[in-house]
Amino acid sequence: DAGITQSPRHKVTETGTPVTLRCHQTENHRYMYWYRQDPGHGLRLIHYSYGVKDTDKGEVSDGYSVSRSKTEDFLLTLESATSSQTSVYFCAISRGSGTNYSSYNEQFFGPGTRLTVL
Amino acid sequence: LAKTTQPISMDSYEGQEVNITCSHNNIATNDYITWYQQFPSQGPRFIIQGYKTKVTNEVASLFIPADRKSSTLSLPRVSLSDTAVYYCLVGDRTGANNLFFGTGTRLTVIP
Q: What number of helices (H) and strands (E) belong to chain B?
């Protein structure tokens, strides 16, 4: 709804293969985030970006890398997928003004990608 | 880091007012309190945000006491379509990577 798309929406892959998920926004927001959601854990932040080529780790970053070469795209890569990375992955964006802390909290989420690693 | 504690689940009948309380004892001076709603197979959706006292919008009200160590999301006259998971978040002043969604409160509205 907030101009965020994720691709693919569903993916099944095998252990050990590389996987890249894409998040695309049309809002020109500065901040972009990747979360994973698992039963019993809620949403957990994997990585986030605060600008082109500026990224940082979240709570559960091991086994994941990200890249942001353009404002509108934020890529999440699993270099060698494992079964523990089977999850639903959500991308989110926010305005993230440097002096308005409240803007960090208002995030807009994409539809999610369901990833299954066999 | 300001994490939150919420009830795991709640049930309510249609037409009733629902209050979901969240505790955030370590809230910092510059932190805002934000609530999200998530339906099955969808991403979370921003509902309401506040700093102190009371905030109201077309969807909900948010009550925050003076000490700000807790907050209450109030949903007036819930319907079956309000069945969802509700997350309480507190924004940490150190940056955008410190928003913890936790497991939320699963609200089930009963006919």
A: 0, 9
